[in-house]
Every structure is written in C-alpha cells, then in structure tokens.
C-alpha cells in the first residue's frame, strides 16, 4: 500500500511468536507494505525511535511487558494507529484494548488477508483525519519514494540509501517540503529555515538549493523537485505526504 507520495507505508509487527512474525511479514510485504517485525516492547521502542512507523500491529500476550501496558505508554505520547492481536476472545479484553486507544482488534487465530484489510482501512481512515485537521508533531515528510525523518534528521532514497545533509540543507528541505506546491521567496526561505543572520544575504539560498539539487535531483539541469520560479523564488513541485 503506497501513500500519495509513492512511499510504502511502514507497519511494525510486535509479537513474541516467530511463526506469526514470519507469516505476517511475508504476507504484508507481498502487498506493498514495508514491514518490521520484533518480539518485545524494548525492541519496538528502538524501532520507533530510529524510523518512521505508520501503524503498529501489537500482540497483547507478550512475555514480560504485556501489550496493554505498551499500548497505554504509546498513547501517552503518540498517535500512531494500533491494531491489537490476542489469543483471548473475552469481550472485556477487546473493550479494554479499544479504551486504551487501539484503532482495531483482531483475535487469534486470524487470516493474514483480514489483517491486511484492517490495516488498509485504519491507514485510509487516519489519512482522512489528517487532511481534516492536521495536528502538530510532524515526524517525517515523504515524496516520490523519498523520506525525510525529522526526529533522526535522516534523508532516505527510494532504494533505502541514506543521504547526508548539512544543517542548512536539512532546515531548508524541511521548509520546502512543508510548503510543497507554494512559491517561497528567498527572504521567506531564509526566515523560515533560520538561516538568516547579518552576514547572510538572500543569494546564499541559491547555494543551498544548488547543493540540495545535487543530492536529490536526477537531472539538475531540469529539476523535478525543487523548481525555480523566475522573479519569485522556489517551489517544491511534487506531492508531499506529512507523517505524524
């Protein structure tokens, strides 16, 4: 499942059963989803800190720290959608999971096909919610298969290769992606990217743009992403998805 920017949605599966991790990873991976699979809450938190995750599939019956505790902690500081898995069928467990903030609930044994359908439904619903009222706390921008992780300050190509950015390049790219489709003057770019100082003049933006183009454009003579609007400034010219 691809988003509007062309990047595959990233699903994190948390289950201490290796058979389920392998089964779910293989099935979802064959249906245009990027999948990470881990066995416990500690590894889950490491993955969330290191990468952008669009949805978590969380087993309630984990050894050690259980899924209910993990879900409660996640909801204290994150709006990442959660689909809970459990071998228990009691109504009280389902209600508790939903009250803790789970977006959906699936009882084991389950069909990978049904899980995929529920994942697609939750992701589609979340994107509608984001368009209607975008909250603060952007975690990443995606465009044309690229991903800029704001927490880790990582720019990743569609092939998964990481591109190094200077502080100035990173700040400027954040501004351009956040205002995709809008023409920004050099003064606006200076101000919004916090590059302005007494020694910096508007033409320094042209140097930063040139450096960014060298790193992300296939054809720098005819740039597709960062386009020049003569007499006005610059515009980011492809659709950008905001990940919260």
What does this molecule look like?
The protein is α/β, with parallel strands linked by helices and 244 residues long. It folds into 2 domains: 10-132, 3-Layer(aba) Sandwich (Rossmann fold), CATH 3.40.50.2300; 140-243, Orthogonal Bundle (Arc Repressor Mutant, subunit A), CATH 1.10.10. It is built from 8 helices and 12 strands. The strands form 3 sheets. A 5-stranded parallel sheet has the order 2-1-3-4-5, with helices on both faces. A 5-stranded antiparallel sheet has the order 9-8-7-6-12, covered by helices on one side. Helix 6 crosses helix 8 (204-216). The longest helix is centred in the middle third of the chain and has 21 residues, at 112-132. It starts with 9 loop residues before the first strand and ends with a strand.
- Overall pLDDT: 83
CATH class assignment of the largest domain: Alpha Beta
Number of domains: 2
Strand order across the largest sheet: 2-1-3-4-5
CATH topology of the largest domain: Rossmann fold
CATH architecture annotation name of the largest domain: 3-Layer(aba) Sandwich
Uncertain stretches of 5 or more adjacent residues? 131-135, 195-200
Give a short synopsis of this structure.
The chain has 244 residues and is of the alpha/beta class. Helices cover 39% and strands 20% of the residues.
List the helices and strands and how they pair.
Blueprint: E1 10-14, H1 18-29, E2 34-38, H2 41-50, E3 55-59, H3 67-77, E4 82-86, H4 91-99, E5 104-107, H5 112-132, E6 140-143, E7 146-149, E8 154-156, E9 162-163, H6 167-178, H7 186-192, H8 204-216, E10 226-229, E11 233-236, E12 241-243
Parallel strand pairs: 1-2, 1-3, 3-4, 4-5
Antiparallel strand pairs: 6-7, 6-12, 7-8, 8-9, 10-11
């Amino acid at each position: 499942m691809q988003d509007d920017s062309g990047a595959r949605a990233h699903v994190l599966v948390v289950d201490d059963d290796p058979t389920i991790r392998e089964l779910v990873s293989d099935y979802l991976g064959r249906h245009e989803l990027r999948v990470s699979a881990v066995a416990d809450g500690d590894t889950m938190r490491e993955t969330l800190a290191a990468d952008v995750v669009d949805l978590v599939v969380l087993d309630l019956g984990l050894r050690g720290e259980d899924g209910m505790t993990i879900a409660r902690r996640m909801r204290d500081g994150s709006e990442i959608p959660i689909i809970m898995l459990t071998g228990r069928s009691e109504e009280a467990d389902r209600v508790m999971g939903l009250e803790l903030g789970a977006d959906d609930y699936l009882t084991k044994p389950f069909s990978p096909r049904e899980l995929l359908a529920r994942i697609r439904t939750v992701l589609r619903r979340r994107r509608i919610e984001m368009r209607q009222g975008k909250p603060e706390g952007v975690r990443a921008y995606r465009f044309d298969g690229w991903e800029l992780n704001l927490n880790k300050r990582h720019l990743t190509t569609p092939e998964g290769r990481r591109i190094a950015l200077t502080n100035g390049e990173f700040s400027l790219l954040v501004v351009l992606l956040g205002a995709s489709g809008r023409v920004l003057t050099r003064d606006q770019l200076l101000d919004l990217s916090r590059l302005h100082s007494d020694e910096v003049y508007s033409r320094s933006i042209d140097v930063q743009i040139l450096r960014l183009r060298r790193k992300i454009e296939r054809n720098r003579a005819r740039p597709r992403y960062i386009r020049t609007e003569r007499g006005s400034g610059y515009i980011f010219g492809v659709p950008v998805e905001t990940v919260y």
